[in-house]
Amino acid sequence: MGANDTQQPKELPMVLLHRLPSFNLPPNPSFRDHLRSHFHILDPHESPEPYDSFLSRHAHSIRAILPVGPTQISSELLERLPALELIVATSAGLEHIDLPACRSRGIVVTNASSAFAEDVADCAVGLLIDVLRRISAADRFVRGRIWPVEKEYPLGFKLGGKRVGIVGMGSIGSEVAKRLSAFGCTIAYTSRNKKESVPFLFYTNVRDLAANSGVLILCCPLTEETYHIVNKDVMAALGKEGVIINVGRGSLVDEKELVQCLVQGEIGGAGLDVYENEPNVPKELFGLDNVVLSPHRAVMTPESFEALFQLIVGNLKAFFSNKPLVSVVSNE
Amino acid sequence: MESIGVLMACPMNPYLEQELDKRFTLHRFWKVPEKSTFLTTHCNSIRAVVGNASSGADAQMIEALPKLEIVASFSVGLDKIDLAKCKEKGIRVTNTPDVLTEDVADLAIGLMLAVLRKLCESDRYVRSGKWKKGSYMLTTKFTGKRVGIIGLGRIGMAIAKRAEAFSCPISYHSRTEKTETKYKYYPSVVELAANCDILVVACSLTEETRHIVNRKVIDALGAKGVLINIGRGPHVDEPELVSALVERRIGGAGLDVFEHEPEVPEELFGLDNVVLLPHVGSGTVETRKAMADLVLGNLEAHFMNKPLLTPVV
Question: Inter-chain contact B165–A181, Cβ cutoff 8 Å?
Fold first, then answer.
């Protein structure tokens, strides 16, 4: 590096930061500094220029885009960026990106699921234990000073021996399976394709999985095929003692149906980190002790963000130096 | 066996109560208005006591029941039974090991996740209707955290096995080193606390282990450390723990047991880094039935002169 010190600083590669005004990258100073020292980050919201003209002016130089959270990347936006070659997604889910349009343009997409998988899996297991053992409800019982009055807290249900059905056996599903195996649960799964390297029982569809499980854990991406994949039929198959844990996307579940089933005791309980219309959560759930509600926080740890930053910087650096990317989304 | 008098120390399980009523002459101690008169009147017919984690058979009770032959505890913990006195008088003692091991271990992990990932706090937040788009709060990752276990018996080992699935390095302290395990042994609780992120109490309560988690241990655990207690309330110096939590000298706590159940220190109710449970370690439908069956099985075996199922003394 020493020999280059006296030369002009190389023009940094441009990366478009694509975000809704209410979203931004986490305020981690070392990440932002690192990012800005290696790349020229274009942020339309930090410019006084109107969005459209800002975008048009820079379009020909933008080869890479960094979308924040769920900010949409539509085919219209892609059309306005003719030089775009790379999308570095910052979330595990990719339903906000027009993947078919990317495929036909040859635009590569990298995702962040490996940065989050452990934290999401931990959250799924935590929610499951909480629902079965009534941890949050019992904590309310104690804080409400009810214990000295009522002496006994109602019994929960044993986790060990439960048949757990995992919907989606990607990085998150595998981490969930690994954890719950240690609790004595039997694992089965469904996925677009059977995974030969996975030792668990495979079902071709969610309904059959539900019929043979006591717990359903949703870890798959939201696509046209998986929209409302957990519907009335699936919930009926899961049964009155069944528990649903959703750490995927709210719309994987027919939420109206779920609420009705829970309120009427048609299923045994639910642990939810995601909802169809965040941050709105059906109020009927607030009075239920067999439901645990989390505000889309499954990935929210400093460690996950650190891993995410490494992944973002790693992918961008690799791209601009023509090296293999770190976490390309396969078209499997 | 209907003529055999059995004294049930406190309410613990409707199914157990029902079955005891069917098979024996059951005396419900908590319904007796004058306890000492009751004991004098019935002392010659009571041959068994059924106790649990709250109430068992202390020296006074044992002395008052000259015909007592067996104390069957609806728990694995024996701290409410005067074991020395029972040995002295040739009274048999049974408990409920193994059947509750998994549930207690599950709850320990559940508490770790609930404290570190702030699950109860998050649930409260959502139910309050305060969740706004774009808002977020960081919690702490559980995977990979160092877990230190006090007491590597059945429950301690079950906790270790589960935590390992989360890639948690495991270390422990116990009376003697367990050379057959691969986990790291520390000869003192303070050293264990200094070298872990999450400290779990999983040993039995004896005179030696009372207040085993004291000020020194709490200080060693430190401002980022979390204490999980699924043992007995008296394992922890509760006032010390409370002030450490209030003053943020310790990172958080998940407590299923307290020194004076069902009383819980008021100061804890305002904290968002604690999870408080009403002694539900073995509290599942499945396990309580298995525990009840074990109590009944032990009593039956005793009165039919067969070997006891799970004798302690």
Answer: yes
Rounded to 5 degrees, φ, ψ at A251 are: -75, 5
Burial, A104: exposed, middle or buried (Cβ in 10 Å; 0-12, 13-18, 19+)?
exposed
Q: Which residue of B has its CA nearest to A178?
A: B165
- In angstroms, the Cα distances linking A318 to A36, A63, A99, A329, B186 are 16, 13, 21, 15, 45
Q: Do the chains contact at A129 and B136, CB–CB below 8 Å? A: no
Judged by a CB distance cut-off of 8 A, whether residue B10 touches chain A is no
Contact between residue A92 and residue A120 where contact means Cβ atoms under 8 Å apart:
yes
Beta strands in B29-84 (DSSP E): 46-51, 70-73
- ipTM, interface predicted TM-score of the complex: 0.95
DSSP A105-139: HT-EEE--HHHHHHHHHHHHHHHHHHHHHTHHHHH
Per-residue pLDDT tens over the stretch B44-64: 999 999 999 999 999 999 999
pLDDT in tens, B191-232: 999 999 999 999 999 999 999 999 999 999 999 999 999 999
pTM of the model: 0.92
Instruction: State the Cα–Cα distance between residues A14 and A11, nearest whole angstrom.
Output: 9
Domains of chain A by start residue, with CATH = 3-111+301-320 (3.40.50.720), 116-293 (3.40.50.720)
